[in-house]
Amino acid sequence: MTLDVGSPVTHCVAEFVLGATWEGLPANVRRESARAWLNWVGCAVGGAVTPAMDAAVNGLVSMGGGQVPVLGRAERVAMVDSAFLGSLAASAQTYDDTHLATITHPTGPVASALLATAHQLESVGRPVDGDRLLAALAIGIEIECRVSCAIAAGGGNFGWYMTGLSGGIGAAAAVGRILGLSHEQMVYALGLAASQASGLRAAHGSMAITFVPGTAARDGVVAAYLAAANYSCSDIAIDGKNGLLQVLTGATDGSLISDGLGARFEMLNNAYKPYPCGIVIHPAIDACLHLVREQGVDYRKIARADLRVHPDALNLCWRKLPDNALDALVSLFHWVGAALVRGSAGVREGEIACVMDPAVRAIQAHSEAVADSTLANNQAVVRVTLADGTTHEWMTRNAIGSVTNPMTDAQLATKFRDLVLPILGERRAGALLGKCENMHRVLGIGEILQLGALQGKGE
Fold first, then answer.
1. pLDDT digits over 103-145, tens only?
2. What does the alpha-carbon distance between residue 86 and residue 40 come to, in Å, rounded to a whole number?
3. E-strand stretches of 204-280
4. Which of 99, 158, 337, 344 has its CA 20 to 30 A from that of 441?
């Protein structure tokens, strides 16, 4: 599908969003939609009890309650707040998926917006089954990633938080699809979502790192529901004069959004994280774990560590000596220290006890990194020098969790269990995993919420 010359890109996108079918999507796209959903549910439940979620839930509930469940929580909130919280929770441990080419976290805003909307529809007798939800998820992620590609190619400032710029558009597309919007209404929804695009990377290192994807989910729901009520918006909000692309990049070329739409799928370049931190850190973690596990490096003998990394690793995760867990989530130097000292890189390695561990701290302080533009974004080189002058070096050529070396279904299932079991217990965690692995058998989204949301404060 290609944009007609002179036609705003919103029309091409609306045609695809409303016309695509689950059966018509390629098998690999359907498979990745299911994997994205599984990964998101696990991250949302696992992140539900973090301090960021506690603060967000308390703040929203103080403004008024609602009837919509939240994965991993006992509280009930308003519909738009549930969309906000689901996306926030999934990013709370920095374990959510990443479209590495644009540093977008695409599934959170779309999946959370869909879950909230599906619950609302089911409450009025319009259940959304698993295949219908996954089709909308795939289509929303695809639009989000394509918008991100257009922004990135146009030279948008690196300080913009990409998920906040494109996430609401993807969420609006997905929600509008299951609401059954007309073509004209879908154009409104896409424009309304684009008009709310926002997010600054200065939020990194604070709870607000989760606020941006949460807001994107909420904005997408609001845009779609207002459009359903015929609240209009200009059709040039994305690629026209003073539209999203021109404001961010100075250009108005929407061809990266429309060209090949429905034939080539950008969502296939999405990746799932094996480690709960910025994905640009992962190649260095792989190298450190190799040094410990395969070369037998003893952290007690390390005098210094020297890193060569892709430029994005330093652009995004430059923090040298983080003094809190939120800063550590996006600190290259912390995760190098944690991986070398602990020989692992899981949720516990992101907690404050590990951040302030004197042994980890010493390696943080005695590590240096340089950006190497010859490295791919899934590569890094780590060299450690021991106190006796001996050196050990390893180059990660193809980091686990990257598009070229993706996590397997079994690895995703293990990640899901590790995140969900402490919250839901073994029985419900296993049952929820089974539902998420077999979405074609899910007749209504209430089946997911019944297992994934807590029933009372004491549970």
1. 999 999 999 999 999 999 999 999 999 999 999 999 999 999 9
2. 9
3. 270-271
4. 99
* Cβ atoms of residues 338 and 361 within 8 Å: no
- Sequence ranges of the domains in the chain: 9-271, 279-396
- Non-local CB neighbours of 458 within 8 Å, separated by 6+ positions: none
Tell me which architecture the domain covering 9-271 has in CATH.
Answer: Orthogonal Bundle (1.10)
CB 326 within 8 A of CB 209: yes
Helices (H), 259-379: 282-293, 311-316, 325-328, 332-342, 352-355, 358-365
Distance separating alpha carbons of residues 280 and 448, to the nearest angstrom:
32
| CA pair distance 89, 96, nearest whole angstrom | 9
- The torsion angle over the Cα atoms of residues 207, 213, 219 and 221, rounded to 10 degrees, is -120
pLDDT (tens digit per residue) in 318-355: 999 999 998 999 999 999 999 999 999 999 999 999 99
SS (H, E, C) the chain: CCCCCCCCHHHHHHHHHHHCCCCCCCHHHHHHHHHHHHHHHHHHHHHHHCHHHHHHHHHHHCCCCCCEECCCCCCEECHHHHHHHHHHHHHCCCCCCEECCCCECCHHHHHHHHHHHHHHHHHCCCCCCHHHHHHHHHHHHHHHHHHHHHHHHCCCCCCECHHHHHHHHHHHHHHHHHHCCCHHHHHHHHHHHHHCCCCEHHHCCCHHHCHHHHHHHHHHHHHHHHHHCCCCCCCCCCCCCCCHHHHHHCCCCCHHHHCCECCECHHHHEECCCCCCCHHHHHHHHHHHHHHHCCCCCHHHEEEEEEEECHHHHHHCECCCCCCHHHHCCEHHHHHHHHHHHCCCCHHHHCHHHHCCHHHHHHHHCEEEEECCCCCCCCEEEEEEECCCCEEEEEECCCCCECCECCCHHHHHHHHHHHHHHHHCHHHHHHHHHHHHCHHHCCCCHHHHHHHCCCCCCC
Architecture of 279-396 per CATH? 2-Layer Sandwich (3.30)
Task: List, in order, residues 6 or more apart from 191 with CB less than 8 Å away.
Answer: 10, 233, 234, 235, 236, 237, 238
CA-CA distance, 341 to 372, in Å (whole number)? Answer: 25
Structure tokens at 95: 């374990």
User: Do residues 82 and 118 make contact, with C-beta atoms less than 8 angstroms apart?
Assistant: no
**Helix, strand or coil, per DSSP, at residue 46:** helix
| Rounded-to-integer distance, Cα 411 and Cα 426, Å | 18
- Per the CB < 8 A criterion, the answer to whether 165 and 248 are in contact is yes
Per-residue pLDDT at 4 exceeds 70: no
